[in-house]
Design a protein that fits this description.
A hairpin with an 8-residue loop joins β6 (about 145) and β7. This protein has helices spanning about 1-30, 45-50, 95-105, 115-125, 135-140, 175; strands at about 55-60, 70, 75-80, 85-90, 105-110, 145, 155, 160-170, 180-190, 200-205, 210. It has 6 helices and 11 strands. A 7-stranded antiparallel β-sheet has the order 2-1-5-8-9-4-3, with helices on both faces. The protein has a two-stranded antiparallel sheet with strand order 6-7. The chain has a two-stranded antiparallel sheet with strand order 10-11. The protein has about 240 residues and is an alpha+beta fold. Helices cover about 25% and strands about 25% of the residues.
Length: about 240
């Protein structure tokens, strides 16, 4: 009986103190959050600032039929010019890593939102998964077109916004961060699918959801400090 009574008393203490504890926790939460923002896990911060559109990356060689294609969402502009540089995250867990390491060149292809389903599917399979599977090019109906400066192919089709032929410029961050620094050597644009003129890029939010480009906000007249980077014509 004594054990039961002690257990009951302990339960009563928990029951009577819970409202106070919850009230105290709520006050602590409010005191720690006076600015109106909620805490966010640092492991997910990439979802907040992942800037660029989802891309297709081609590697290998079209000429000898070793060309591969994969999907990436982690990339960034690293330098505007002299030369322009782009950073992409591509690690040894990707089959394309070996191709890029060997040939030191690739193509970055920018798909429009009409290709979103296919692009996601490409990103959820690997050339190394099953030897009996057809190539991703055939499986997803992607057109591989010859590039002019690299062996990897362009991605063709009416819903491809652009293709950027690149060579590897710097590999010093690959071993630690899987970050490749690429130098564009040739770029191609589909003028019918340029953003704002029919093409809409889409951006991964990090959890299987995507944001699609919307309205174009033109504030060039306020960008007085960076006018040299405001090209008005596509050459």
């Amino acid at each position: 009986m004594a054990r039961k009574r002690k257990a009951q008393e302990t339960q009563d203490e928990i029951s009577t103190s819970s409202p106070k504890r919850k009230t105290s926790e709520k006050k602590d939460s409010q005191s720690q959050n006076p600015h109106g923002f909620d805490s966010y896990p640092i492991s997910n911060v990439y979802r907040l600032i992942e800037p660029g559109p989802v891309l297709l990356v081609t590697t290998g060689s079209l000429a000898d039929s070793t060309h591969n294609v994969m999907t990436i969402g982690f990339h960034m502009v690293m330098q505007h010019e002299s030369p322009p540089l782009i950073g992409i995250s591509l690690g040894p867990w990707d089959a394309s890593f070996a191709f890029l390491k060997k040939q030191r060149e690739c193509v970055l292809s920018v798909p429009s939102v009409e290709m979103a389903g296919v692009v996601v599917d490409v990103g959820n399979c690997s050339v190394a998964d099953d030897d009996d599977e057809p190539s991703k090019w055939k499986r997803f109906g992607l057109d591989a077109l010859p590039a002019t400066r690299v062996k990897a192919p362009l991605v063709g089709g009416p819903h491809v916004i652009a293709n950027i032929e690149c060579v590897v410029e710097d590999t010093r961050m690959v071993s630690k961060y899987s970050m490749w620094v690429l130098k564009p050597v040739k770029a191609w644009i589909n003028t019918k699918k340029m953003p704002g003129l029919g093409g809409k890029m889409f951006h991964h939010c990090g959890n299987g959801t995507f944001v699609v480009d919307g309205d174009i906000l033109d504030l060039k007249d306020r960008m007085v400090k960076w006018q040299e980077f405001q090209a008005t014509n596509i050459q």
